[in-house]
Amino acid sequence: MKSEAVQTLSLYELNSLVREVIECEMAREYWVEAELSEVRESRGHCYMELVQKEDLSNTPIAKASARCWRSSWSMIQPHFERITQQHLHPGMKVRLKVYAQFHEAFGFSWIVTDIDPNYTLGDMARRRQQIIAQLKQEGIFDLQRELSLPLFCLRIAVISSETAAGYGDFCHQLDDSPFVFHTELFPAVMQGEQVEQSIINALNRIYEASSFDCVVIIRGGGATSDMSGFDTLALAENVAQFPLPIITGIGHDRDECVLDMVSHVRVKTPTAAAAFLIDHAQQVLDRIDQCEQRISYIAQTKLSALIAQLSTLSTRIPTLFSLVRTQQEARLGQTEQRLKSATHRTVDKEHNKLVILSTQLPPLIAHLLSSHRHRLELLEQRVASLDPQQLLRRGYSITTLNGKSIRNAKELKTGDEIITRLSQGSIKSIVK
Predict the structure, then answer these.
(1) How many CB atoms lie within 10 A of CB 431?
(2) What is the C-alpha to C-alpha distance for residues 245 and 273, in angstroms, rounded to an integer?
(3) Which of 10, 48, 170, 194 is the most buried (most CB within 10 A)?
(4) Same domain, yes or no, for 153 and 108?
(5) Is 367 within a domain?
(6) Which residues constitute the domain of residue 40?
(7) C-beta of residue 48 within 8 angstroms of C-beta of residue 38
(8) In this structure, is residue 288 part of a structural domain?
């Protein structure tokens, strides 16, 4: 059995068939919702990579390439950025008007003819509301507003781009004020995908320094600046729970970003942030001046009252002194009489005691003398019995060496001169 001849096409012919089918069957335009995974511009054209992810697993379930040619992009881009205040960037959800195109050499691509900015705004608003709901559920949405600026808020930590004009305007306005502010810059990326982590890192460095009164997050920029970096959950959580008051002056006039909502105070521009700090310092100074004036007024009022009291007392003192003197003299007279009477009574009482004692003393003295005389006689007898002369009279003798009595012969040595006392006389001897 012969096999049928099969027609073989070239790749170009096959791709041409695909192009013809697509042009015939998909000739109209479609609105499609997708997320941008990549965006780049080249020679005025815009090239996009589209992706759709599963809601729960975040796994891509569809991918496609899209292009917006320069003729369309030159009109679509300014319109989109004017309304959304954002550039197209990876992670943004968009609603695109496209038609299918297949090229024999470059393959399939969706050609973008329009972008719906209202859809992106709605998605941004939904994401922002989700972040706000999460912050409120965690109980940290209003934490910054519960903080208070220190009365003397002069040490300012600034988070901004080092080259931003807004940072220079902020510093110049503070320098031109009558107050001495100390500012220290903690550089951070203020535009693009690195905004979140860059600002968080700056906040961590400020927390470690722990020598500031407040934090100011500022940036300058045009109306088309990318604000998505300020609408993230991680950044909002860090700002909301930061222990120092945070003032934001991000420089945009449209809706507040989430960072503005959780900060202590939100102002529109960097110069407005500087004006807020200067106004706060001025309010403190005015308060001090008011307290000074109040203290001075109270002191003067009190002094005037005391002077009036002193004047009144000075007119009453002579009369009061005369009255007091009369009262005191009367009291002194009464006291003198009482002292005299008490003295006489005490003298009479003590005199009576002396009379009684004088009659009792002679018998007592005679008794004491007799008792002590008897004790002396007993002591004389004891002393006489212990007199060495009594021993000598009985035939005993006392031998001394150098005035000390000898009780043991071993205490003597040859040549010692000893004296022996007898009842009558003494004998000198030399030991041989």
Answers:
(1) 12
(2) 13
(3) 170
(4) no
(5) no
(6) 11-115
(7) yes
(8) no
98-157 per-position pLDDT tens digit: 999 998 888 899 999 999 988 887 777 777 788 888 899 999 999 999 999 999 999 999
Q: Give the pairing of strands 182-187 and 155-160.
A: parallel
Are 241 and 147 contained in the same domain?
yes
Other CB atoms within 10 A of residue 421 CB: 17
Q: What is the DSSP string of 376-427?
A: HHHHHHHHHHT-HHHHHHTT--EEEETTEE---GGG--TT-EEEEE-SS-EE
201 & 224 share domain: yes
What is the pTM for the complete model shown? 0.52
Based on the domain organization, do 243 and 182 belong to the same domain? yes
Look at residue 189 and tell me if it is in a domain.
Answer: yes
Order of strands across the sheet with 426-430? Answer: 404-405, 398-401, 417-421, 426-430
**Dist CA 245 CA 310 (whole Å):** 53
Residue 183 makes CB contacts below 8 A (sequence gap 6+) with 156, 157, 158, 170, 171, 174
Task: Give strand pairing partners of 429.
Answer: 418
Domains contained in the chain, number: 3
Computed on alpha carbons and rounded to an integer, the radius of gyration of the chain in Å comes to 59
Say if residue 160 is in the same domain as residue 271: yes
Which residues have C-beta within 8 Å of that of residue 212, sequence separation ≥ 6? Answer: 155, 156, 157, 184, 206, 244
Q: Are 17 and 7 spatial neighbours (Cβ–Cβ below 8 Å)?
A: no
CATH of the domain at 35: 2.40.50.140
**Do 57 and 202 share a domain, yes or no?**
no
CATH number at residue 205: 3.40.50.280
Q: 157 with 226, same domain?
A: yes
Q: What is the pLDDT of residues 340-354, one digit of tens each?
A: 989 989 998 988 888
How far is 225 from 166, CA to CA, in rounded Å?
Answer: 14
Rounded to an integer, what distance in angstroms lies between the CA atom of residue 244 and that of residue 210? 9
Q: How far is CA 60 from CA 51, 54, 107, in A?
A: 6, 6, 21
Q: Are residues 90 and 42 in the same domain?
A: yes
Buried b (16+ CB within 10 A) or exposed e, 206-241: beeeeebbbbbbbbbbeeebbbbbbbbbebbbbbbe
